């Protein structure tokens, strides 16, 4: 079995490294970094023509998009560990929540960070940052409702659905956050990215369980 994950732990590749660590299967992490132009190298563009990380090679299959990679890995290798449900309905919910994380969860995070940190100061608008925070809280409220009667999104077992959601919405977790936030003092971090999952109560409980998983701690150690 030959599995290669292209990317670095300080990127969205961390989501896939987390999945691979949960699976406890052999893999190679091939270092490709956007900061040094590695994602635009011809040999990497032959793997992922989008010029982004991560990308996966699994015995001849090439995939990009972090959450799609995780669904593939869970489906192929994770059923015995509870990471992939064998019921059709739960498989459909897994796809639904993974897409939801990217369409409802990630855009508010990007919007907030752009207007608090990444855009030139003259282009930043505090109203846009606040709107991002509000949209993030709305998404978190939807998630809280889904978790009102269950410990994890599909029921009693942590699965790839939880991993994908937390991999996106848990963007302030030390193992998942953008490296540009590393080194900020707590007050500045709270100002720039006040996107914590410490409330409402169902989300807070769920986020604590996801964030304390040993496999994610191993990803943190790779940074």
Q: Can you list the strand order of the major beta sheet?
A: 2-1-3-4
Series of secondary-structure elements, N-terminal to C-terminal: EHEHEEHHHHHHH
The coarse overall form would be globular
> Mean pLDDT, nearest integer?
97
Low-confidence stretches: none
Q: What count of structural domains?
A: 2
The CATH topology label of the largest domain is Glutathione S-transferase Yfyf (Class Pi), Chain A, domain 2
Can you identify the CATH class of the largest domain? Mainly Alpha
Strand content: 5-15%
Radius of gyration: 17 Å
Structural class: alpha+beta
Q: Please report the number of helical segments.
A: 9
CATH architecture of the largest domain: Up-down Bundle
Short description:
The chain is α+β, with helices and mostly antiparallel strands. Helices cover 52% and strands 7% of the residues.
């Amino acid at each position: 079995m030959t599995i290669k994950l292209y990317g670095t732990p300080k990127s969205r590749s961390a989501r896939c490294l987390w999945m691979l660590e949960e699976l406890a299967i052999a893999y190679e992490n091939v270092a490709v970094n956007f900061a040094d132009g590695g994602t635009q190298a011809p040999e990497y563009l032959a793997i992922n023509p989008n010029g982004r990380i991560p990308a996966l090679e699994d015995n001849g299959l090439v995939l990009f998009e972090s959450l799609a990679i995780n669904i593939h890995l869970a489906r192929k290798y994770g059923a015995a560990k509870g990471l992939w449900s064998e019921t059709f309905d739960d498989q459909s919910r897994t796809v639904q929540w993974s897409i939801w994380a990217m369409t409802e969860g990630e855009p508010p995070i990007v919007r907030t960070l752009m207007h608090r940190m990444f855009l030139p100061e003259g282009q930043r608008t505090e109203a846009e940052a606040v709107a991002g925070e509000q949209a993030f809280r709305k998404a978190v409220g939807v998630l809280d409702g889904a978790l009102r009667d269950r410990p994890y999104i599909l029921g009693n077992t942590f699965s790839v659905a939880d991993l994908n959601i937390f991999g996106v919405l848990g963007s302030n977790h030390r193992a998942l956050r953008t490296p540009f936030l590393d080194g900020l003092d707590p007050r500045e971090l709270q100002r720039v990215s006040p996107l914590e999952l410490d409330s409402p109560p169902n989300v807070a409980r769920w986020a604590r369980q996801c964030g304390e998983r040993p496999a994610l701690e191993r990803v943190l150690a790779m940074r």
